[in-house]
Design a protein that fits this description.
It contains 17 helices and four strands. With 351 residues, the chain is mainly alpha-helical. Helix 1 packs across helix 3 and helix 10 packs across helix 16.
């Protein structure tokens, strides 16, 4: 339940929403999407922005202080290697988006380490970024997804299950070992970030529905995956923006309501729900832009945790998964069709 301060913000956002044209709102809200869900999504996005904007950042040397002296060099070099690998992927993503989507996102680029000042300062990480790099990016499941090794014919299902469980255990451990409000918020932020980036739990729901219904292939898979899981470029059908909206589709709670549509609907009978989801994304971005600076100036960790808990981020995580051979097969086929080639973005399936 939201605290009084966040309830007031919720009401203010609803008033902003109600100022949009009625026919537009009738498209956004209805069978799958309700105002409360979209408002909480906007508030969570603003909380993440406020944390990213205000969290203290430290050098790699700072994070090495609790490492045994004889292991410090190895630990520091391992972190640096992971950071360089991440920035290499992000730099290629930046070039791809600039060329193919005609959008410039300088935040994807690494700091210029040719500069003397930057070289002396080194890479700067906030606490969450450090956890993500240290605990996630070298996780075998994540590494095998990004490198596409998981798509190899000789990648055994038992190995898939082993590494998938290790991935889930990272999240569950983060949730179970959080005691302070700050730790609890960072645990929920971890759940949100990992599910946004890799969509493992959503994909598990999708392949479960495929197995249950006997559906072997999904019609218009690339189009659906892009809308519900990927980076998107959107133009409102109602011309309320005057621009192309570039964002990541990460409405975790809302997109779960479209699992049946994802699996079963073809292009024609999906159109109504596709338009609804697309316009909801546009509306979310427009209001997020209005509200995010206010969150930076007027909210803190207690508010961020209150919003994330009310959103129910942890409920998007399916803690006990039964990865049958069919589910693994269906998931690999989905990845084969839509996988983003981090090393060669030009090989990415067109969305």
């Amino acid at each position: 339940m939201l605290n009084e301060k966040m309830k007031a913000v919720q009401i203010a956002i609803e008033q902003i929403i109600n100022s949009f044209p009625k026919d537009y709102l009738n498209t956004v809200f209805g069978d799958r999407i309700i105002k409360e869900d979209l408002i909480l999504q906007i508030m969570l996005e603003c909380c993440k922005y406020a944390y990213d904007s205000t969290a203290e950042k430290h050098s790699i040397r700072y994070y090495c202080k609790n490492v045994e002296k004889n292991e410090e060099d190895y630990f520091r070099m391992n972190l640096q290697r992971s950071i360089r690998k991440i920035y290499d992927y992000r730099e290629k993503e930046y070039e791809y988006k600039k060329i193919h989507a005609e959008v410039d996102i300088p935040e994807l680029l690494p700091p210029d380490m040719c500069s003397i000042n930057n070289k002396m300062a080194g890479y700067k990480l906030n606490e969450f970024q450090y956890w993500e790099i240290n605990d996630v990016h070298d996780n075998k499941f994540v590494d095998d997804i990004v490198s596409e090794r998981i798509l190899n014919r000789n990648y055994k299902n038992d190995l898939f299950r082993k590494y998938a469980k290790e991935y889930d255990d990272i999240i569950i451990e983060k949730l179970n070992c959080s005691y302070t409000v700050k730790d609890k918020f960072l645990a929920l932020l971890a759940c949100f970030t990992l599910e946004w980036k890799y969509a493992i739990n959503l994909l598990y729901e999708i392949v479960t529905e495929m197995e249950k219904s006997g559906t072997k292939t999904i019609v218009n898979l690339e189009r659906k995956y892009s809308l519900f899981c990927g980076p998107v470029a959107l133009i409102s059908n109602f011309d309320i923006t005057g621009e192309i909206i570039h964002t990541d589709s990460r409405m975790l709670n809302i997109r779960r309501k479209f699992v049946y549509d994802f699996v079963h609907r073809n292009k024609i009978n999906l159109l109504e729900y596709e338009n609804q989801y697309r316009e909801a994304l546009v509306l979310q971005v427009l209001i997020y832009r209005k509200m995010r600076s206010w969150f930076v100036m007027n909210t803190g960790i207690d508010d961020w945790y209150n919003v994330a808990e009310t959103y129910g981020v942890s409920e998007c995580i399916i803690k006990e998964k039964n990865w049958t051979n069919k589910k693994i097969k269906y998931l690999k086929e989905i990845w084969h069709s839509v996988n983003f080639d981090y090393k060669n973005p030009e090989n990415r399936s067109k969305k």
